[in-house]
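FW: tagging you since you asked about this chain on Friday. Here's the raw sequence from the shared folder, copied in full. Didn't touch anything.
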Amino acid sequence: MESQPGTILSTLLKKRLKTLGYPSLRKFHADRPGLGLSYEVLRQVVYGGHIPRPETLFRILGSMQFSSSQVRKICGMHYGDYLPISSVATDASLPYPAQAGAGNPESPTDPGTSYPAERSRQENEPSSAPLEEPGEILSRLRASLQRIPVSGNEDFWEMVESLARIAEQKVRRSAGRQAEQPLLFAGEPEAIYQFLVRKNRIPPFLSRGENLTFDFVDGIDYRDRFRGALLGSAVGEALGTVTQGLTPRDVQELFGELDSLPVVATARRAAAPHDSLLLSVARSLLPDGLLDPERTANAIARAGRRDDPPGLAVFARNLLERGLPWHEAGENAPESMPAVLVLPLALLRAGNFRRLKLEAGILVSLTHTHPTAIAGAIAQACAVARILHTPATSLDVISFPRALSPVVAGIEPERGTRPRIGRSVTTVGRKLGAEVPALLLRRAPVQEMQETLGNGTAAHEGIPFALGCFLRSPGEFAEAVVPAARHGGDARAVAAMAGALCGAYIGESGIPERFLARLPGRRELGEAAEGLLALARRDG
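HL: got it, structure written out here
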């Protein structure tokens, strides 16, 4: 198999670092203060396999003392403007692609490395091997430790007794969970909701908030819009994945204007060809149009990636490695990623507000039980469903976020942990009802919106910022989604949410082909969207 160009470039640069005698990239960067690039940009190019814009690559190659002929061939390899790729192999001064990874001065498991193409799928996926039952562990301990005398080993035997007590407690808890399962799988989401409320896994959100009306409207091409929502979200996630955690300046140095899907996004997905999170959730809903919590939780966990946010990664480990049941595996983290995963459900229940809100809260609680994560995901799901039924050119950008605020009212705590101070806390509902409309009313630039709302991993930052990016330019996909990715931060989730909203409004036909041409899984996402539409019309 031919090596990815990004892997070849990374190999060349790491070999050159070794040739120049530098033990680390940070030392190389510190010795060149006039380079004009941040260390993060260098790290993304050298270790992350990113292909920057030509001007940035010229500066990096020049600082590493490549000859002019080598610069021409390296640039021709990646931009096609100098020499064909096949000519690279004829130059003895450049290593062959097959030598990728040879002589690396840094370990390939460097924390900054992002999805090298040579990594196998098995390293990216959590192990699915079932754990042994606690009772079996306890019996094996007792059988294997009989020959160890107690005298002289008192501390050891005290530890063994503690482990035995923990194992017995796990056995009792496991038996209790099995007894609860028949109640859960009666099949009705209302019963599951009541069970989760009783277990304090979710707040009682269903009786709070204003009802919205979701009705299919004549004259709207729902096939185009459903496909646009899933594809737009996938494009936004692909754009945001490569800019996650970067600053706007670093994004500019690496990708320029980011006016199409970066090649590195395709290389990453080629290294991890299994289904995306979005497609996995959609497929878990498609067989019967029902939200089966156990089926969906397993689909999300098995589609996990190495760059998933901490809460999602811990959930996958809880479910697949620690063996926790789906209703105990979720983390109490206020992240925005659940608002991305709820999109297929928003399409499935696009004609039924109450069921959408009910099942959106259940789906979010599988991975995140924090009230802010639940409120944010419900707001995003309702926003997508409302956009689907909004005729073109009739969107009121000021009243739209205000209408979403009552839907999530009361889900999040309105006061801090010390009531005597009386300090209000920032919530998703507060930002949607007041701050986002105020910024839109005075047509604030994206930079000001980012500074005011934030774009971190917390749902009360990412979700309002994504909605603000969309409402500034609802009819232009690039104007709505690219700024969400270019501002870094939690760009993967923010750009995915902005892409879902914009795609649901303008449809697949309104998304520029330059963003869709290299999108992995385009056909599968389109088919899933059409399947969800058929089920949504039946449900509505």
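FW: The radius of gyration is 26 Å.
HL: agreed, and Confidence is low (pLDDT under 50) at residues 81-132, 267-274, 416-424.
FW: great, closing this out.
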